[in-house]
User: Fold these one by one.
Assistant:
Number 1:
Amino acid sequence: MAHQHRRHTQRGFTLIELLIAITLMAVMAGMSWRGLDGLMRTRNITQTQVDQITVMQTVLAQWQADLDAMQPVPTLNDAGVTWDGQTLRLTRRASTWRVDGSDAGLWVVAWTRRDTPQAGNNQGVWVRWQSPALQTRASLQQAWAQAQRWGQNPSSEDQALETTLVPLNLWQISYFRGNAWSNPLSSGDAAIGSASSNGGALPNTSATPVTPDAIRLLLELPAQTGLRGRITLDWVRPNFSNTKT
C-alpha cells in the first residue's frame, strides 16, 4: 500500500492543466509582443521626426550661409540681394576653390516656394537654385536673369540646377532698414530714411539699393517637416550696428 501511495503522489500534470499553462504563456507572449511593437513604432516615429528636424536645420543653415557670404555686384546687384515677392535672389562668394587653389568666383543663388497641386490643400515645397561658379560680369548677368526666369517659369535647363528642400505652406520676407521692419517691396530695395509712425518720409526709390541691415524669414511648415507651425529666423548683417536709442 505504501508503494501504491507513493506512485499516486508522483503523477504528472493533467491535459487540462497543460492547456491552461500553454494558454497563459500564449497570452503573456502576445502582451509582450504588443509592448515591443509599441516601443518599435515609437522609436521609428521619433527617429523620423529627428531626421526631419535635422533636414530642416540643414536647410536653414544653408539659408544663413548664403546670406553670410552675400557679395554685392556693382550695377548688377548693388544690394547683394533682391526680393520680388516670389523669389529671393542674391550673389555670394563660392565656397569651393578651383583645383589650382584660386578663387572660384561668385554664385548666383535663388530661393522660392513652388506649389505642388497634386498634394492638395495649397501645399508647396521650398526650392533652392544655384548657378555654377562665375568669373565674368557677362556670365553673372546671364545667371542673374536665369535665376529670375527660374523663379517665374523654370525650364528643364533651369530645373537642372535646383534642389528641392522641404515641404512649405508659405513664406514671408521682411527687411530691417531705417530702424524698422518693413516689406521689401514697399521701398523698392532702395535706401530709405527713417519713417515716422504718422507717415514719415516717402521711400527714395531712385537711390542706390543697399544691403538690408537684417532679413527676417517667416515659414509656415506642414506636419511632415516634423516642425508643424510657424518659425521665424532673423539674419543680421555682420557689420550692422544699431545706433537707435
Note: Confidence is low (pLDDT under 50) at residues 188-206.
Number 2:
Amino acid sequence: MRFPEGFLWGAATSPHQVEGNNVNSDFWARERTSQGMERSGDACDSYHRFGEDMRLLAEAGLNAYRFGVEWARVEPEPGEVSRAELAHYRRMIDTALGHGLAPVVTLHHFTSPRWFVEEGGWLGERAVDRFRAYVEAVSGILDGVEWVCTMNEPNMLALMTSMARLAQDPEARKKWQSPTVDGGARPALPDPDPELGKLLIEAHHAARDVVRRRTGARVGWTIANQALVARPGAEERLRELSHVREDLYLEGARDDDFVGVQSYSSQWVNADGIEPHPPHPGNTLVGTAYRPDSLGIAVRHTHEVTGGVPILVTENGIATADDSRRVAYTAEALGHLADAISDGVDVRGYVHWSALDNYEWGHWAPTFGLIAVDRETFERTPKPSLGWLGEVAKSNALPREGR
C-alpha cells in the first residue's frame, strides 16, 4: 500500500476560517447582516499563530501545508496594494519552507474584498481585470512555491454568489444556509449558475496565465466533487447534474498543471434529481452520509473528465467529534485513493481538511480538524488523528490494517 515517490502529505486551512478579523471581506459583512449566521471574530488567530500551526504539522511528519492569501487584506481598496500584507504572506511561505512543508497556496478561497462585491463582484464588468491585477501583485511573493490554486471550489463560489444575491432581495431573504452544512437539505440549494461559472473559468485562465508567466509554480484550481452516482435508469440525469455542478469546471481545468479534488461524501441520483441524505445516527456533523469511498469515485471521475490532468487531493475529511472515527474514515478513503492510483490515476498528493477545528462558513459546531483549538485561549491540542496521518506520511504507505 505504498504511495508514489515524492507524494505530498498535508493539511489545509483557508484565510477567513482561521486568521480572524478579516474586516474588509464580503463574508465579514455578510456575517453581520444574514439571519442565523455565527460570526468568525478572532477565528483561530492563525494570522498571528501560523508558525505554531505549521510546526505542529511538520513535527507530526507531514510535508505540505495548504493555506491561502486573503485578497481583502492585500487590496483593501481598489488599486491599493498593502506591502505589509504581502510581506506577511511571504513570511508564511518562508515559515512553511523552513519547516520542510511544501506550501500549497490558494489565491481566492470564497472571500473577496467588500469593494469588489460593491462594484458588482464576479458579475461586474471589471471582475476578470480586477482578479488578474490582484494575482499579479501576489505573484511577486511566490518564489519557491511549487503549487498554486487560483480559486477554491469555483462551483461552490458560484452557488454562494447566487445565495448572496438572493439574500439582498427583501422578499426572498431567508435564514442563512451554509453550503457546507447539509442536514439533508443540499438538494434544496440551487444549482450553480453556469453563466457565472463561465466567468469564473475566464478569471481562472487569466490568473493562470499570470502565475505561469511570473513564477515557476504549477497552477490549477480546486473543484468541489460531489461523487454523484446514478440509480439504474438515471444515467442521463446524472450527466445533466454533473455538468452544471462539477464538470463545467473540470473542463475548464483541462489545460492546467494540476486539478484539486475536494471530496467528503457521495449521493445517489435518481430520475428526479439528487436524493437527500436521510437522517441517520451515522451521518457526519454537517449532515452528510459517512462515505469514505467518495474520494475514489471523485478522483476517477476527475481523471476521466479532465483527460488525465494530474490530481492533487486538496481537501478530504470528516466533521466528527469522535477522532477515532476520523482515523477510520481517512484510512478507508486513502485505501480507495491507493486503488485509483494503482489503476493509473495520476495523483500527486493528499491534503487533509482541515488542519484546525475552524469557522465553518456561518457555524462553529462542525469539527473537521486534526488539531483542536480552544476558542478562548487559542491553545492548540493535536488530536491522535494528526499523529496517525503523520505516521502514514513518514512511511509513505498505508498499513494493510488501515483498510
Note: Residues 166 and 172 are 6 Å apart (CA to CA).
